[in-house]
Design a protein that fits this description.
Blueprint (H helix, E strand, L loop, with lengths): L15 H11 L7 H21 L3 H4 L16 E2 L6 E2 L1 H13 L19 H12 L8 H21 L10 H15 L4 H13 L16 H21 L16 H5 L15 H5 L13 H14 L6 E8 L1 H7 L8 H4 L3 H11 L9 H4 L2 H7 L2 E5 L1 H8 L8 E7 L8 E3 L9 H16 L5 H11 L2 H6 L2 H6 L4
Helix pairs in contact: 1-8, 2-4, 2-6, 2-19, 4-5, 4-9, 5-6, 5-7, 5-9, 6-7, 7-8, 7-9, 8-9, 12-15, 15-17
Length: 481
Amino acid sequence: MSHRDLSDASRPEPDALLLQIADYVLATKSIVSDEALDTARLCLMDTLGCGLLALNYPACVKLLGPVVPGATLPGRGARVPGTSYELEPIQAAFNIGAMVRWLDFNDTWLAAEWGHPSDNLGAILAVADYLSRDNEKPLTIRDVLIAMIQAHEVQGVLALENGFNRVGLDHVLLVRIASTAVVTRMLGGSRDDIVNALSNAFIDGGALRTYRHAPNTGSRKSWAAGDATSRAVRHALFALKGEMGYPSALTAKTWGFQDVLFKGKSVTVPVQGFGSYVMEHVLFKISFPAEFHAQTAVEAAVALHSQVASRVDEIERIVIETQESGKRIIDKTGPLANPADRDHCLQYMVAIPLLKGWLTAADYEDESAADPRIDALRAKMEVVENAQYTRDYLDPAKRSIGNAVQVFFRDGSSTQRIEVEYPVGHRRRRKEGIPLLLEKFKANLIGRIPARAAQAILRLCQDRTALESTPVSRFMDLFVL
């Protein structure tokens, strides 16, 4: 797209991408496939379960609730699952978004840009519940599922060809954009309102990835998506008040998003456009709370545990083969400062299952990390790129996330080379994965939600017809403590 003369002060037409996204989210009846709806149901369950599990961690819980004590909205606010909080929707979105992302256990999308599309549920569920309180025509869970499909699609399709991480930007900017578009529509916004809100979401820029990488890795990566969803709700509510937008927010010469933050490149949409592709192909984190590029490496390490656990002192080296993206973002040596550092270290995520035969969120905490054997194993690891894994990772027909692990001993013997190309949460392993996903959801409910409510939630979520027709406010009642 050509730039306009800086001296020309006439207001341009809105950028094509803003209009394309707005038109897509307004077309709620034309994009919903049966597979997408059923996958969205599974995604809703899994995402809420991940949020409930995060409530076991004080570092997460301390950030929840109102910004200042007493700033609640009893009887009218959006509920925060697993708590007694009733909050205005901007802060409720932050709460839900932070919960579901805290343990790095919710769904994932991998392309030129990676991210976690269910992060958008923070905004979607907060707005849906807020709109459904004291409303004669409350939104239903079907409305939530459609909004989830759309948010997944906007975030995921924009990630296919646009590598924001390549210029140092964090993927949560796509959460902010997707959530802004969808919740502005949910709130009754017009095409112009959605365009205005979206333009402000782009003008927010992109969060730097500083907090995701050594030597600054920290807990902000666990609440950054909550922050993005809350910004989205704010932009939507402002647009409905008539707040203006900025039509060339992306393409304005010198001052637009593309020139300032994207090295002058255009943000592009593939020829496939927007539909329901992303929800249908989304990756579930079922077995391990691990950064997704490492999922298959952890699975391989679990398979090797029985061959290694009794011979840890005899290990000479460990070779991990991974994709280029995995090597670039989670290959870490040296000290790891905190749980957020550890759950983005490929070597740490392989060491734990080699030693224990499993990997849980608790294994990233300081008590577990104090085991000296972990760093001793990390020091013996060699991480190399497997070019075929990189090609298959980028192949739209495959989207594999291959890793291989092999352990070599000082006496010259070695384990098998265990290779896993597709994690259990991949579309190619859906049949195998769904029962495990349901067990994960059940386990996350038990102990956090009262038994009678937990059983009601399980029954409802497994009956798609009944679930889709359930008012959001009634559904959220089941999660209130």
